[in-house]
Design a protein that fits this description.
By secondary structure, the chain is mainly alpha-helical. It has a single domain, classed as Rossmann fold, CATH 3.40.50. It is about 50% helix and about 5% strand. It has 17 helices and four strands. It has a four-stranded parallel sheet. Helix 2 crosses helix 3 and helix 14 runs antiparallel to helix 15. It is globular and about 50 Å long. About 5% of the residues have low confidence.
Length: about 400
Amino acid sequence: MQSTVSHPAPIRVRDSETRQGAVKSHDLPRRVSFDERLRLFLSQWVFSTLHGVTWGDWWRLLRRIRFQVDPRYFPRAMFITFCSVFNSSQARREEKHFASAVRRVRIHPPVFILGHYRTGTTYLHYLLTLDKQFAFPNMYQGEFPHCFLTTEPLYSRLAQFLTIRKRPMDEMAISMSAPMEDEVALCVMTFLSPYMGLVLPRGNGEYDPYLTFRGVAPEEVERWKAAFTYFLKKLTYKYNRPLVLKSPPHTSRLRLLLEMFPDARFIHIHRNPYTVFQSTKHLLQRIGPLFHLQRPDAGDIDGEIIRRYTEMYDAFFEERGLIRTGRFHEIGFEALEEDTLGQMENVYRALNLGGYSDVEPALREYVALGRDYRKNTYRELPAELRQRIATAWRRSFNEWDYAI
């Protein structure tokens, strides 16, 4: 089976203000339509990153946490429950019709985009997936990994209608056909993901080890690998093309990824660490409430960001040498922003991807469409916090020549 990859090349829109917390419906101007207010309400109180789970997985999770869902999130839990029954029925249907063919599929060596949150991984993902020689998991497939082969043609339209039009953290356009992190699918399929720490923030760090998978029980590692392989086989069955995959946690899983895909290629993108810190904090403040089933306890959000970044890059620096020559390329976000076409040509040349001349017109058009985009701006960091970041992330500053 081979299907056309639909890529709308989402246009980034203006957003020059730093906002705290998620947008509330009463913050919207009066002229905003009822449809948009409905979408915002659904995203705030009903939809969840787990609405693609199956009933059995959802029930086991509820039992394990002793049904400790906070009352304000009951509508979200009820919606997950409703969806899980539907997902289970469609997953059985999909297994019956496609499982045998999917398991025979051979996955082409993927291209992995690496980098911490807010380093430009999404922008790079959009750019690379303009190339029709590649495929990618889209938003619908990432959110409904158990049944997208069966349900996507019909239900992606409904999902698109009910979904907010812009990402809360940077107001980039949202589309069910746009590239999506495969980590979302892995979270839905296995719960073995640091993203579960946003869903259940009172879990005392239970999901932290799944950032790097260091120290994780072998049976959990194998379960994660099996789910990842099956998800990519389904995508390959649908498109029969090499996949471009982007998920920030993969930055700290190089050894694991190379065990699975020894011929994979990797592109790492970095950005000024101070900006990464500010943008990551903004991200968590904006999207955290959209994940929660529990209200988080008050904590040191600055310390959490610093700690997770450190864990990610300690693993990255230790394991990047495992990648074979000619399979790894590194770029800076600032350089990509300054000279997008030149940097993309360097990527194609360094990784021997081929076909740059074919995709250059689409890249040029995409860059032109985004010329009016204004990035979020942030207040200057307090001197004490700057020093804290500089001390903890010193290797990153030195490695990529950013001024402390």
